[in-house]
Specification:
Number of strands: 15
Oligomer: single chain
Bound molecules: 6-O-phosphono-beta-D-fructofuranose
Structural class: alpha/beta
Helix content: 25-40%
Low-confidence stretches: none
Radius of gyration: 22 Å
Strand content: 15-25%
Length: 364
C-alpha cells in the first residue's frame, strides 16, 4: 500500500531507546517511501486533543542517543476509559475511543505506529479492532512483554542496576554492611535477576519466587560466619514474602491519575533484617534512573531494527501486529495474541537454575 502520511505515538512509562525508534520510523518512512511523518504527542492524549508535530529528518537528527521521548508520554490517558473529573469533583471514566478514530482520519493518516508496553498495546489492539491500521512496537524496561525475546529499554536498565551493584559491592565490603538495592519490576524480576547476576549479588529476590525472610537472614549469617561480613541483595519492587503477604506499595492513589506506585520493599526488608542481625543495613532505591538517560548500544540497535521493520510491515499492509525480536530476526506477532499476558521468569528458567547453581540465594 502507499504510505503517504503516517503517525507515531509513545505511550506508558518511558524508557531508553524510544527516540531511537522514533528516528528509525521517521527516517525509513521518509527515505524509503517519501512519506510524511506526524508525531502524536503525550501518548493517546495527543490523538484526543490534537497535539502533534511533523517529524522530519532534521527534527530527528540528533536524537538517537537521547533518553526519554521527544513526543512525550503518559501512563494515564486510556481512550477507552478516560479518567476525568465530573461536575461534582468526583472521578468518572469515559470512552473516547471514537474520538481517537475520528481524529486519526482527520489527520489523514495511512497508519499509526504505537510504541508501548502491555497496557498501551492492548489499547492499540482495541483501536485496530475498530478499524484503525495499527502496528505495535514493544517497549518496557521490565522486559515482561509476551511475544518478543527482549523489549528495548531493558538492557539499559540492567546496565544502570549492575553499575549500581558494582558500587554497592565496594562500599558494602569496606563497611561490612548489608547493602540492599531495590530495582523496578512489578510482576517480573528480569531486571533484578539479570543485574544481580551481572553485579555478583549474593541474594536476589524476584516477584516470581516469594522469599522467606529467614532464608535471607540465614544466608547473610552464613556468609558472615565464613568470613564475609557483608552481603549485597537485589530486590525487585514487586517481590513479596512467603505466606501470602501483600506487595509493599509506596502509594495507591485514588486521584485522577489512578496509578498505583510500587516501591518500599527495599526499606521494608532493611528494617526487618537490621532487627535480627548485628550488621548495619543500608537500602538504595534506584527508581527512575533505570528509565531515563542514554540507551546502550543494544537498545539503540534494537530500536532501530524494530522501527525500520515496522515501516516495512506497514508498507505491506500487515496491520494488527507487533514487531518483535525473535532472535536473530525481527518478525511480526498478532497484537491479539498478547492480550494482558505478563511474561514472567519461568520457574524452570535456566537463568534461575544457573544463578542458584553458583550459590546465589533467591530467598528460598
Ligand atoms: O512499567 C514499567 C515501570 O518501570 C515499572 O517497573 C514501575 O513500577 C513503573 O514503571 C513506574 O512508573 P511511574 O513512572 O508511574 O512511577
Amino acid at each position: 500500500m502507499t504510505l503517504k502520511r503516517i503517525g507515531i505515538l509513545t505511550g506508558g512509562g518511558d524508557c531508553s531507546g524510544l527516540n531511537a525508534v522514533i528516528r528509525s520510523v521517521t527516517r525509513s518512512a521518509i527515505l524509503q517511501h517519501e512519506a510524511r511523518v506526524i508525531g502524536i504527542e503525550q501518548g493517546f492524549d495527543g490523538l484526543l486533543f490534537g497535539w502533534n508535530q511533523e517529524l522530519t529528518l532534521d527534527a530527528t537528527r540528533d536524537i538517537l542517543t537521547l533518553g526519554g521521548t521527544i513526543l512525550g508520554t503518559t501512563n494515564k490517558g486510556n481512550p477507552f476509559s478516560y479518567r476525568e473529573y465530573d461536575e461534582k469533583g468526583g472521578i468518572r471514566e469515559r470512552d473516547y475511543s471514537q474520538t481517537a478514530v475520528d481524529n486519526f482520519k482527520r489527520l489523514g493518516l495511512d497508519c499509526l505506529f504505537v510504541v508501548g508496553g502491555d497496557g498501551t498495546l492492548q489499547m492499540a489492539y482495541k483501536l485496530f479492532a475498530m478499524g484503525l491500521p495499527v502496528i505495535g512496537i514493544p517497549k518496557t524496561i521490565d522486559n515482561d512483554l509476551e511475544g518478543t525475546d527482549y523489549t528495548f529499554g531493558f538492557q539499559t536498565a540492567v546496565q544502570v542496576a549492575s553499575d549500581a551493584l558494582d558500587r554497592l559491592q565496594t562500599t558494602g565490603k569496606s563497611h561490612q554492611r548489608v547493602m540492599i538495592l531495590e530495582v523496578m519490576g512489578r510482576s517480573a524480576g528480569w531486571i533484578a535477576l539479570e543485574s544481580g547476576i551481572a553485579g555478583g549479588a549474593h541474594i536476589i529476590l524476584i516477584p516470581e519466587i516469594p522469599y522467606d525472610p529467614d532464608k535471607v537472614l540465614e544466608n547473610i549469617r552464613r556468609r558472615e560466619s565464613e568470613g564475609n561480613p557483608y552481603s549485597v541483595v537485589v530486590v525487585a519492587e514487586g517481590a513479596k514474602e512467603t505466606g501470602g503477604r501483600e506487595i509493599v506499595l509506596e502509594s495507591a492513589t485514588e486521584n485522577l491519575q489512578g496509578v498505583v506506585h510500587y516501591g518500599g520493599v527495599g526499606n521494608y526488608l532493611a528494617g526487618k533484617i537490621s532487627r535480627e542481625i548485628d550488621l548495619e543495613v543500608r537500602c538504595t532505591v534506584l527508581g527512575h534512573t533505570q528509565r531515563g538517560g542514554t540507551p546502550n548500544c543494544f537498545d539503540r540497535v534494537l530500536g532501530t531494527r524494530l522501527g525500520a521493520y515496522a515501516v516495512q510491515a506497514a508498507k505491506e499492509g500487515r496491520f494488527g501486529n507487533m514487531v518483535a525480536l525473535k532472535t536473530p530476526e525481527i518478525s511480526l506477532v498478532p497484537l491479539q495474541s498478547l492480550a494482558g499476558i505478563v511474561r514472567k521468569i519461568p520457574p524452570t528458567s535456566q537463568l534461575i537454575k544457573y544463578a542458584e547453581s553458583i550459590g546465589v540465594n533467591l530467598g528460598r
